[in-house]
Amino acid sequence: MRNKLAFLTGVSLKRKIKTKWFILANLLLCLGVVGIFNINSIIKFFGGDFDEPLKVYIVDNTNISFDLLKEQITTINKSYYGEDSNVYETVLYVEDKDINEIVKGESKKIAFIINHSEENVLDVTLVSDGYIDSVDYQLLSTAVNNTKTILATSMSNVEQSELAKITTPVEIKREILDETKKTEDENMGMIMTTVFPMIILPFFMLTIFLVQMIGAEVNDEKTTRGMEIIISNVSPKTHFASKVLAGNIFVILQGALLILYTVLGFIVKNIIASKQIFSGLDTIVGDTVSKIFESSFASQLVYIIPLTLILMIVTFVSYSLLAGVLASITTNTEDFQQLQTPIMVVLLIGYYLAIMSSTFKGALFIRILSYVPLISAILSPSLLVVGQIGIIDVVISIIIAVLFNYVLVHFGLKIYKVGILNYSSTGLWKKMFKAMRER
Description:
single chain; alpha/beta; four-stranded mixed β-sheet; elongated
C-alpha cells in the first residue's frame, strides 16, 4: 500500500511541478515579489519621479509667513517621515513670473499664495496642476494652520518667551499601571493589524489554489474515465490519501518558494537601494520593523510562528480533505465550482475577521470563532498577536482542527468510495448519507 501511495503521490506531484506552467508561474511570481520590494528603484530606473520631493513654492505677500511655514513643513518632514527625509521642499518664490506658469503641468510642484486677512490673519490659496494626495493635503494644511496660530498669537503682543511656550509641542509621558504592559507595545495592536493581514494573504491564496487543484484533478480523472482504471489497481483510501498528500506537499512547497522570493526581494533591495530613494516610505517601513523588534512582541515570535505554521498545515489538510470529498460527488468541474463556493465564503469570512480582529476586543464571540476549524488558521494567530487570546486558545484551536480532520477522514472516506465511481447526480446525496451511516 505504501508503494502505491508513494507512486500515486509522486505522479500527482509531477503533474503539477514538472510543467511549463509551474515554471512560468513561479518565474513571474518571483519577478513580481522582487519587483514589489524594489518598486521605487524600478520607477527611478525608468525615469520616474518616485523619490522626487514635492516642491512647495511660497508666495509670501505678508513678508512674515515664509520662515514660520517653512519651519512647520520641516517639522512635518522629520516627525512624519523621519529625520533624514525630504518629502517636501519649501521654496520662497520671489520671481516676477506668474506662479501659475511654474506649477502648470508639474505634478511635483504646488504653491501657497499667502496674503493678509483682517478677519482670519491669513488668506491662503493653494495652487496645483491637478489633484493633491490626501495625506499631503492634510499635512500641509496642518502646517498652514499652525503658522496662522503662531502669527495670531504674536500679533496679540505676547512676549517672545510666552510665545515659545505656546508653540512648543507638549511631550506626553506614558504611565501604565499594569506591570505586564510596556509603553513601546502600546501601538503594536495597530501595527500588527496592518502587517499581519499581509502575512496571512499568501495562506488565503494557497488555500484557494489547493481546493481548486484537488477538485480539478479528481474531476479530470472522472471525466476521462481514468478513475476506473486507477481504482481497479488501488483502494479508494489510497487514492484519496494520495490526492490529499500531493496537494499539501505542493502548497507547502509553493509557500516555501514564496518565502524564498521574499528573502530574495530584501537582498536585492539592500544591494541596489539607496537612502535617497523614496526615503519617506523606507523610513516608515523601517520604523515599523524596528518597533516590532524593540517591543516584547519580538520574543513572542518564538512561539507564535511555530503555532501558526502548525495550525496552517492542519487547516491545509482540512481544506484538502473537504475538497476531495466534494469533488468525488461531482461529475464535472462546473458542478465542483458550485460546491466550493461555500468553502470560499467561509475562508473569506475568516480573512475579514482577522483584519478586523482588533475591533472585537474582549468579545466572547470572536474568541469562540477562533476555535472554529477552517477559519482558525487565519483568525487565531491574528487574535494572538493583538493579545485577545493566549497560547492555550491556539493549542485548543489546533486540537479541534485535528479532531475535525479525523471526522472528515472517517465520514469523508465513506462518501469518497461511493462518489468516485458514480457518474450520475440522481439520488447521489441519498447514497452519500447512506454511505456515512455504514460501519
